[in-house]
Amino acid sequence: MKATIHITLKNGVLDPQGKAIENALGQLGFGGVNEVRQGKLIEVDLDESDPAKAEAALAEMCEKLLANTVIENYQIHLNDA
Amino acid sequence: MQAAVIVFPGSNCDRDVAVCLEAAMGQAPLMAWHGDAALPKCDLIVLPGGFSYGDYLRCGSMAANSPIMREVVAQAQKGAAVLGICNGFQVLTECGLLPGVLMQNTGLNFVCRNTRLTVTNNKTAFTAQYAAGEEITVPVAHNEGNYFADDDTLKQLQDEDRIAFTYAPSDNPNGACLDIAGISDKAGRIVGMMPHPERRAEAALGGEDGKRMFTGIVEALS
Predict the structure, then answer these.
(1) Residue A81 banded pLDDT, cuts 50, 70, 90
(2) Any keyword Lyase (chain A) (predicted)?
(3) So what's the ipTM on this one?
(4) What span, in angstroms and rounded, lies between the C-alpha atoms of B75 and B81?
């Protein structure tokens, strides 16, 4: 089973890169951009075929390594094969 | 006393720290490789600066999960003194020995220059040879040194007198909360700092302000 994990900065955590991208978009003439936040997308391919077990395993991976929960949130999306 | 410097792939200040420790102790520290699962009992463990594992995923995150770190955490919990410098500080936050996280500098640039620091707490195991409030000059060299923690954690650090070093307010190189340059655990035996004391530990390097970190901890442990 394949999964994608979105890791994003928590609300209130300063995102200097997002801010720089936002400014660059403005300079390129893209109007109406209120805010840009940059995150990470991680793709994982698992042996596990049971969605609940896969999600539990991925959550543990996020807690232990993939995300730093002091500043980051994670969202797990299971992709149907 | 037994001291060890942990060497990760990508560490680049390990030998500088070893020189400082040897000068302070009169004997060379053990250089311990990240893949080792065992570490002899140590009184002092230093996590050096550098770019462990290429800073993959997040600075310090891969190193924090390397085999040797299980042993470092276990010995730290039994009272070994631990110093994390720059990338070593990032590893200490990632492995949970110190709170908070080092985020990207607000200026988005790698900053490599001298900074003016205040010794905010001279009661840690590492800072006893400085006067309280003493101003020293120590260089930084990092892209992710912007110390961040939630408000409760920051208040706790203040209340428990765990902020070891602050940047002079006009000299904060990275946007760190409360101008924090270094913090300690509650007992003052685990210290993490972004500036590099080993890079200013002898006159030939431009000054000796960093030297007392090493002579201080050796004195405290002897």
Answers:
(1) low
(2) no
(3) 0.86
(4) 9
